[in-house]
Amino acid sequence: MTTTTTRPNHRAIYTGSFDPITLGHLDVIKRGRVIFDDLIIAIGRNIGKREVFGLAERKCMVTELVDEMVAGQPDGGSVSVETYDGLTVDFARAKNARVILRGIRNITDLAYECQLAMTNRTVADLETVFIMTSQEYAYTSSNLIKQIAALGGSVDHLHTIVPRNVIEALRKLQADKGLAHLIEDHVD
């Protein structure tokens, strides 16, 4: 008598504000698809940061990029994009995810991410899987990208670290003076 057992679906959530999404984030998503059967890109709010793009706008940009990725790389798990408010652990429970995927750029990220991982395991029994971003994205930062755009820097020069749809959106915000709120508090 042969018994067949089905392997459980390995679902993970990749959380972040993705404000804006970078090529480093996409690198983590691409490699995460190979590891997990189902990957949910969970776009949340970081109350410690000023937003450039609203949740709906970020979801639209990320979805466009993920759809392109999946079409160009059909092998891999499914990917969906969702937004959420509140605690990541609550979102993970609601989605029946047992793993949080996190990207590590450099040693600076590691201490902070380890602290989060231990807290999530203690509080919610969620494991964290870390993926090192590719070397060319080790110092890519959404915060730096926002600063360059807010201070009038050429966003066209960011093409090696930021997707084209983000460059277009940042260029439009610069033209409409839509980034002034990022530097208001820093003016003496």
Helices and strands in order:
Blueprint: E1 11-16, H1 23-35, E2 38-43, H2 55-72, E3 78-83, H3 88-94, E4 99-104, H4 107-124, E5 127-132, H5 142-150, H6 164-175
Keywords:
188 residues, alpha/beta, Rossmann fold, five-stranded parallel beta sheet, 6 helices, 5 strands, 41% helix, globular
Number of helices: 6
According to CATH, the homologous superfamily of the domain at 11-138 is HUPs
Biggest β-sheet strands, sense, barrel: 5 strands, parallel
CATH top level assignment of the domain at 11-138: Alpha Beta
Which percent range describes the beta-strand content?
Answer: 15-25%
Q: Helix share of residues? A: 40-55%
Rounded to the nearest angstrom, the radius of gyration is 18 Å
- Report how far apart the termini are: 78 Å
The CATH architecture term of the domain at 11-138 is 3-Layer(aba) Sandwich
What integer is the average pLDDT? 90
Question: How would you describe this structure to a colleague?
Answer:
This protein is α/β, with parallel strands linked by helices and 188 residues long. The protein has a domain at 11-138: Rossmann fold (3-Layer(aba) Sandwich). The chain is built from 6 helices and 5 strands. It has helices at residues 23-35, 55-72, 88-94, 107-124, 142-150, 164-175; strands at 11-16, 38-43, 78-83, 99-104, 127-132. It has a 5-stranded parallel beta sheet with strand order 3-2-1-4-5, sandwiched between helices. Strand 4 (99-104), helix 4 and strand 5 (127-132) form a beta-alpha-beta unit. It is globular. The relative contact order is 0.18. The model has no long low-confidence stretch (mean pLDDT 90).
